[in-house]
Every structure is written in structure tokens, then in C-alpha cells.
Amino acid sequence: MTEALTQRKPRGLWGKREPLTTWRGEMEDLLSRFWEVEREWFGGEISPSVDVAETDKTLEVRMDIPGVTAKDIDIRLNHNVLTVTGERKEEKEEKGKSFHRVERRSGNFSRTVTLPCAVAEDEVAAEYRDGVLAITLPKTEEAQTRKIKVKE
To answer: Which among 10, 18, 32, 118 has most CB atoms closer than 10 A?
Structure first.
């Protein structure tokens, strides 16, 4: 047994790679490259990842925006539309360094989320720690989940 172990590729009925698997991988690669180019062509705006979770009494929004200071974040709430904008500052070039790859982006970012219910706008709280923005939005009394007792 002197053969090297190799990773198996998905095979179809006739011993070839599945055409749909190959096509899907190529399309995902093409689309990811297209969005990168489009972002560069149209202003370079960053769109951070967002999670929106709901409890009985609150909505919780978490957004990954590393490399930003709290003073560079602007949060606006208009009825049930939450908008977070800001800027990730560009790092200064360092003399004597040649970069072989630069993937970390700088520039403006913006994310708008339509909230699934009404929130108490006066009670919204935001905290930024370790590159994650956490926004807690208490639901209005009308929007809170109520348990209804069933009579026997």
C-alpha cells in the first residue's frame, strides 16, 4: 500500500463530477467576485453582517464592525427602521513595507434593518465592545408577546 491518500470528489453515475455541483461552485465563485468588483466600482461601501433576535420583551441587533471606534458609529431609528452608519478609518501607509495582500476594507459602512414590530424608541440602548455593536430595542407594550390562558 504505497498509494497516497487523496480526497475523493463527488461522482455521478458515470464516474464524472456532478455537473450541477461543478456549475454551482463556479457560479458562487463568479458572484462573489462580481460583488467585490461592484463594491469597488460603486463607492466601496462596506455592508457589515447583522443578526436580529427577538425575545418576549425586546429585539436585539448585533453587528460586526471591527476596527471602528464608538464615536464613528451613528445609529438612527425612524419608526420601525433602524439604520447604522459609520466609517472605518484607513490605516496610514507604512514606509519600508511592501504589501502582498490587502483585504481589510476601510471606508463608509451602512446597514438598514426593518424591525418586525414597534419598539419603545426612548429606551433603546447600544453598546460597542470587541468589534461588535449590540443594540437592545425594548418592544412597545402592544408589541410584546402575551400568554393567553385557556379556560377549561
So the answer is: 118
